[in-house]
Amino acid sequence: MNPAPRHAQTFTFCAPERQGDSIHMHYRLDDTPLTEILYFPDAPDLILKEQQRAFEQALELLSLIAGISYYKAGLARNIAIEGLSVTEDTASFLRNLYQHGLAEMLWKAGLEHFEVPAFPVTQQRHSAPADFPLNRRNLLAMGGGKDSMLSAHLLKAGQQDTQAAFVGHSSLIAHSIEVAGLPALQIRRKLDPKLSLLNEQGAFNGHVPVTAINSAILVLAALLYDHDRIIFSNEHSANEANFINTAGRAVNHQYSKSLAFEQAFARQLNSHIHPTLQYVSLLRPWNETRILQLFSQLPQYHLHFSSCNRNFHLQGSRNSESLWCGQCPKCHFTFLGLAAFLPETELMRIFGRNLLQDRAQIGGFAALAALGHFKPLECVGTVEESRALLAHLQAVPNWQSTAVLQALQGHPELAQARPLEEILQRRYPHRLPPDLEQLLPEHALV
Predict the structure, then answer these.
(1) Model confidence pTM above 0.90
(2) CATH of the domain at 43
(3) pLDDT for 400-417, tens place per residue?
(4) Angle at which helices 288-295 and 146-157 cross, to 10°
């Protein structure tokens, strides 16, 4: 049995470095040195002085963000900075990211009142961002799920010059990019193996804001490979907190996919690195349900995507037999949403079985709608969306007799659910430039 996790005294960020095609980021957890390595294929040399300056500033920000994977192991009571420039606004951004990004892990560890220490300010005034021309090209983050595949489809249909990028070794993501017909950029990430040893010895461990880390990685990629826009596929639903903890803080599993993080990260990017390099989320004006409605109209992708978390780990899939485990919250929500727009035969083709006919799944579907508990700590739609979908399907003849929908009959929360049509018609705040906003259809895809 592992010993109880122990708080470290000091976590130190050390200066990162580039060595050819690789990036080395260095940290210390008390006296334990840690190094993470990123590999960028055929990374070009940066000739212009301003290019080099922007790259160095982006590398510092990445190192500071990626350090959360190692900081969490000891939840150190002090933070030290060696060889990096941290201004007051960056220190505030980082502390906010670490506090919100680790909120789920802290809750699971019974440390809801733990305060991430302040990041030291090492530079009173930040220099102006490096201003040099970048090509009008999109760098699209791909994740192998419905969201990024829909974004790829919209960008390609709009004749946008787009390259897809992903971090890690997922063959599923590589395949989804091939199906989408986009050129691919694979960035490999090697965590320090000592982190696994620390976890085995009982270190603090849990959820980290991976989207924040990948966002900072793609800033480096945009500067290296000459793109002026980084596009993610985060939607409005990611803004909803799962619950408020006993310290009065919102716990949002999707914090680094939220509009709040997008805005804060973009400010850091444009204030410190490059004034016009864009960081946006193409699907932000929509909720998950609207995305599923549109994705249902793209049968060419239905057998080539997965939102099941068992398929997505840094070293590849842990689900060798199927794209869908059929038991996790993401499988539940994707099935529920698509059931509103596709016949059972197509759902069977995608999932291999009817999840709504499985009595063992009743609790999982109820949890999506927060019927007796808070929403699962996963990337799923809002409680309001799940209630609207369940209520809608309870009135559809082909679905209302299924075991799950029969079991959930009579819940007052479902009786009071918003009409599905109202949910589908909503559009939400976003940061899209006009040329990207016009790619989003008002009605059906054509």
Answers:
(1) yes
(2) 3.40.50
(3) 999 999 999 989 999 999
(4) 60
